[in-house]
Design goal:
6-stranded mixed sheet; 2 domains; 493 residues; alpha/beta
Length: 493
């Protein structure tokens, strides 16, 4: 195990407050477990309300000086952080694999996506600019400028413990705010290692802080009057609660919820390409990602042929420990989560779906105590089945047949979620219909996963997102700043 340097001999995960490492003072906590080996990696003590209050007060003090610095100065530590993240990418990936369970390639890809957000945030001097209008009225010039607001916080999930904090952190501080991260208690070690690099990057003490904990810690953040806004990524029920509680406490809030994403395959699609991308989308990161397309809606004229190709691709997937290079599908995060995914599989069988490939009996030699499930495929899925309606968050893919593209789009739009979808087709008219008629926030054409680059916002609609300003891109500038309008008149000028 690559240990964060700040992890003491007791193995207790640390907070980072005011430029110092501190052990949380709460009475609750839990162990950090390698999901592939069941080895204990560390212990997370949960932060108390007093810990949170101390972090907020420190961040507030830091904001007063940081917000007044020239914007060019504020981005210099981000340039340094980018270099440090790239220099330590292999090490960070190894930590991530051991505490999360995903493969090394997936971990490195996640880190690359996070680093891209740091790169984009370095462009804040241009992105923060607003409009000026001379002679807006007789003898009057008018302009708008963006100003930072104060202390912001983010509560981030277990499935991308390196990337998702970097959706928020760089933009918050580049725009002149201070920032507090509450990472997932299930895999907090990569966040602690990133904050060790932040400590080296040259940010003033208190501008960036790390607070570990569980539900009570989150509630303390939501209710604290010194925090201007909250960002969250997680399940839909929690996202809705975060949104409502934050709004009730007068905060800005962006809350990314769950998903039920679809792939549409038309009769003009390149079926080999579509099958490869479908399997990659559904089973990458063991299906534990909100962009996983885990329902394939296929035109009936090519349904049987496509199913055969998907089964063949899925059977070739290797399940194993994420640090072993041949592994395609790693471990699930906890035994409890593995059991929930198994229950979804059993429910699908009970509801009459055709089990084409059963991953429940997979065994990984040498890692018998790991939380492993093999790729599982269902055919003959009905849109009203549980497996077609609810987010499974595991390596499970359902396939269903439809008459045409119109019926396929109807299936997509009936979902309570609106996170992502992909279309495989050879016809531009199909692509245009898909673009204009689907109620989805992230759309891909002949791409297995509709993952926006860092300079575009990460979309989401319906029960997949609560708020109006999304993560990444220009939306972050609007979220972390407010405009002040200046009206100037100089008589006799």
């Amino acid at each position: 195990m690559v240990r964060p340097e700040s992890l003491p001999e007791t193995g207790t995960v640390q907070n980072y407050v005011g430029g110092n490492w501190q052990t949380p003072s709460g009475t609750d906590g839990q162990d950090v477990i390698n999901p592939a080996t069941s080895e204990k990696l560390a212990h997370v003590a949960f932060s108390s309300a007093d810990d949170v209050d101390g972090a907020v007060r420190t961040a507030t003090e830091a904001f007063e000086e940081w917000s007044g610095r020239p914007v060019e100065e504020r981005i210099q530590p981000l340039f340094e952080l980018k270099q440090l993240l790239e220099a330590h990418q292999d090490e960070l990936a190894e930590v991530l694999v051991q505490e999360h369970g995903k493969t090394r390639a997936e971990a490195k890809g996640e880190l690359r996506r996070g680093i891209e957000n740091v790169e984009v945030a370095c462009g804040i001097p241009t992105m923060m600019q607003s409009g000026t209008l001379l002679n807006a009225a007789p003898e009057i010039d008018e302009s708008a400028v963006r100003k930072p607001l104060g202390v912001f916080a983010a509560v981030t999930p277990f499935n991308f413990p390196a990337m998702i904090p970097l959706w928020f952190l760089p933009y918050a501080v580049a725009t002149g705010n201070s920032f507090i991260l509450k990472p997932s208690e299930q895999d907090p070690l990569v966040a602690q290692r990133i904050f060790e690099l932040i400590d080296q990057a040259g940010f003033p003490d208190g501008v960036l802080q790390l607070v570990n904990g569980g539900v009570d810690t989150v509630n303390a953040l939501l209710e604290h009057g010194g925090i201007e806004g909250i960002s969250f990524v997680g399940s839909t029920p929690v996202a809705r609660e975060i949104y409502e509680t934050s709004a009730a406490n007068g905060k800005r809030v962006q809350a990314q919820g769950g998903a039920k994403n679809h792939i549409i395959v038309t009769e003009t699609a390149d079926l080999d390409h579509a099958a490869r991308k479908t399997v990659g989308s559904a089973f990458a990161c063991a299906g534990e990602r909100c962009l996983a397309n885990d329902v394939a809606v296929v035109e009936e004229s090519v349904y049987d042929e496509f199913v055969d190709k998907v089964v063949s691709e899925a059977e070739a997937q290797v399940v194993g420990y994420g640090l072993e290079e041949e592994t395609d599908i790693g471990a699930l995060i906890t035994p409890e989560h593995e059991r929930r995914v198994r229950e979804y599989i059993e429910t699908a069988v009970d509801e009459g779906a055709e089990l084409l490939l059963d991953g429940r009996d997979v065994s990984v030699e040498g890692y018998e105590d790991g939380n492993f499930l093999g790729p599982t495929l269902f055919g003959g899925v009905d849109p009203d089945m549980t497996i077609a309606q609810e987010e499974v968050f595991g390596p499970v893919l359902g396939l269903l047949s439809v008459a045409d593209l119109d019926e396929a789009i109807e299936v997509l739009n009936r979902s309570d979620f609106g996170n992502a979808a992909s279309l495989f087709t050879g016809r531009g008219a199909d692509a245009r219909a898909f673009r204009h008629r689907t109620d989805i926030g992230n759309l891909g054409i002949n791409a297995g996963t509709a993952a926006p680059m860092a300079f575009f916002h990460f979309g989401g609609r319906k029960d997949s997102f609560f708020g109006d300003l999304h993560a990444q891109g220009e939306d972050m500038i609007h979220f972390y700043t407010d405009k002040t309008v200046y009206i100037e008149r100089w008589p006799n000028a």
